[in-house]
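Please fill in the sequence for the structure shown.

STRUCTURE ENCODING:
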């Protein structure tokens, strides 16, 4: 019984953290985060983001996208599958792991503007990304 309650608390926390990370694009700060920091405002307007770190922050995000909205990934070098960084939010790590089991998940890495990681699943219409600010 105690394990079931503990499991429900953990699941509730993960669900709450994911929902709390949803950006409200009518809010100026959230719109700025989507447009300037992430560089993308998907047509679905469904984007989740959470910043981690104090001195050198990293922004982790997940967005529901159409294939034409992530066509820019064609210019980003593809890399072998990677695990989520240890400092990633729990909801982001679990979601990347869960959707990473799909065979169509592709992984990308670039250091062009800032160090960034991306994972994209065409079948799910999800893009995961990180932006490390120097």
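FILLED IN BY: designer on duty
SEQUENCE:
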């Amino acid at each position: 019984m105690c394990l079931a309650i503990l499991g429900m608390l953990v699941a509730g926390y993960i669900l709450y953290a994911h929902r709390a990370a949803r950006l409200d694009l009518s809010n100026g700060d959230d719109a700025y985060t989507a447009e300037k920091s992430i560089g993308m405002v998907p047509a679905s307007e469904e984007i989740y983001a959470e910043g981690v770190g104090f001195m050198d922050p990293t922004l982790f995000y997940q967005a529901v996208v159409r294939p034409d909205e992530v066509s820019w990934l064609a210019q980003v070098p593809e890399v072998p599958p990677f695990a989520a960084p240890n400092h990633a939010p729990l909801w982001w790590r679990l979601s990347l792991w869960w959707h990473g089991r799909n065979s169509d998940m592709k992984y990308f890495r670039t250091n062009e503007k800032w160090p960034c990681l991306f994972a994209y699943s065409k079948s799910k219409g999800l893009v995961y990304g990180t932006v490390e600010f120097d």
